[in-house]
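Tutorial handout. Part one gives the primary structure; part two gives the three-dimensional structure as tokens.
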Amino acid sequence: MSKSYTGERIPGTVNYHVFVTEAKNRREILVDHRLNMQALVTDLHLNHRDELAYKISLAILIDFTGNIPLAESCFRDFKNNMERLFSEDQWLLHSNRIDAFLRHEEGTEEEVVDYSFFDPIPERS
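Part two.
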């Protein structure tokens, strides 16, 4: 079954509420702010926004795969692929995109297409 992940920035902060919707059920995903990301990533200058993007990536992959070792092995690349999306005030991520990312990581798919750089269609005057 397909899932959709959404993020909504908490006003006045850089933190997010992250939700997963499956069928008609919507629930919040816990983004563990107690995790020490410095122990898990090698970025020398990890700012708060980057640290949060790593935590969101890890939480989504754990929820989606149900496999903590798999999620821990690829959340860094997932964050790098989704970084622009996760910087928006509100965002939507469909499970098909996560599937494509995981297939690419396994080497069973040629390329992961990053649609996050596309500009919205301009309104006609």
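Part three, for discussion. Residues 117-121 have pLDDT under 50 and may be disordered. The radius of gyration is 15 Å.
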